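Morning. Coffee machine broken again, so started the prediction first thing and wrote up yesterday's gels while waiting. Chain of 243 residues, entered below exactly as on the submission form.
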Amino acid sequence: MKVTVIGCWGAYPAAGNATSGYLFETEQFKMLVDCGSGVLSRLQQFIKLDQLDAVVLSHFHHDHIADIGPLQYAFLVQNTLQKTNRILPIYAHDEEQEKFDQLTHQFTKGEVYNPNDELRVGPFSIKFQKTKHPAPCYGMRITDGKETAVYTADTSYFTEFVPFAHGADLLITDTNFYKGMDGSGPGHMTSQEAASIASDAGVDTLWLSHLPHFGNVTQLKQEAQDEFNGTIELAEEGLTWGR
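Came back before lunch.
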């Protein structure tokens, strides 16, 4: 399994970058987790759009779904040009029915996941954890049967994420605030909180993502190192884990 950061900024993309988007790949399958602002443009630096097999969404905030509309147009254009009829499945919860319904277009189809059940998407098995966020949002534990990555999606800190992330090879965390700040209102974590989950869960590698637009983001990594002794990376476009 290979994981690549396509976008890593919170709220809106920094110049030339994108908000949340992560590409999960095996040799035969390519799955995008979240599709925020700028993701469609940046994704094409890594794969052709017609190589994408599925999309899975954590929630319906704009910085996680803003490029779904352009992606739907992309599949319309590519199917027209190539004279094909390929449908892209987009998996999401349906707790906001009107927003879920918009996932279905001419060549995309909204597929409901039940967060209480394991979801199978190609070679990947996905389990879900409801997060603490103003909108219904679900973190994901994704495995190809050999390696496991956990994505917190958007959340403030809570202890249930420790067993959910236990033993993961890679943990991708919402790290939108610095040590000592309180992110519980907007529903995000600090560097210290993200690192404490990594430490308590015994993960191998921690990626700090969903980055803030204030302060010096390299400080996030320094603060996390006080809590977690494993490998820590500050997310950036093209950061890759796995083979």
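Residues 32 and 127 are 16 Å apart (CA to CA). Going to sketch it on the whiteboard this afternoon.
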